[in-house]
Amino acid sequence: MPSIEIRRPHRLSAAEAHAVIDQVATRMREKFQVQTQWQNDSTLSFDRPGINGKIAIGGDEIQVSAQLGMLFSPLKGMIEQEIRRKLDEHFS
Fold first, then answer.
1. Is 89 within 8 Å of 21 (Cβ atoms)?
2. Which domains does the chain have, with CATH numbers?
3. Which residues of the chain fall short of a pLDDT of 70?
């Protein structure tokens, strides 16, 4: 099962980073029909058939990890590029 691991530094407070991830989660639910759930104040899990993962907020870093099923394996590069673009947009 292919996986995606991306880390991006940030300078936001925990509350600001949480709010940004909430916005991203809303967009993910609308665009990709994923289910999202905060596991605690710093980790958002997401899931849909063929993709599951989490977005973890650290003190100075955002970490995205995802596992792709067979259906999404050929799209790994495109998915990873979109995640990087969104992280750059919100955390650069």
1. no
2. 3-91 (3.30.310.50)
3. none
